[in-house]
Specification:
This protein is an all-alpha fold. The protein is built from 2 helices and no strands. The radius of gyration is 24 Å and the shape is elongated. The N and C termini lie far apart (about 50 Å).
Amino acid sequence: MRGTDASTAAVHNFDNRSDRYVIPHDELFLGHFEFTPRNQRHIITLGQANCLGNFEERLHALTEKEAVAEGSVV
């Protein structure tokens, strides 16, 4: 016999426990983790009036110093 989904000898637990066991990001206890400062990149948001035909970069790149510092974090 292949698979046990039709068998009465196997116990399958299809109970959705995500509401009880998956912790949302805003409820995590962060005491076990060290604080790591993040490089916040400047993002330009466009509106309806200026989005068409706009080919400017919306996400500003990090400077060389910032990129090296971010890459060396261990």
